[in-house]
Amino acid sequence: MTNNVWCRVSLFLAIGLLAPANASSATIAHAQAKHHQGRYLLSFEVVLDAELDKVWQIMTDYEHFSRVSSSVVESRIIERVSENHHRVGISSKSCILFFCQTVNKVEDIRATPKTDIVIVIDAAQSDFSYSVEHWHLLAEGAKTRIFYSGEMEPNFFIPPVIGPWLVKSFFIEEIKATAVEVESLAGHE
Question: Exposure string (b/e) for 108-138, b if CB count within 10 Å is 16 or more?
Answer without folding.
Answer: bbebeebeebebebeeeebbbeebebebebe
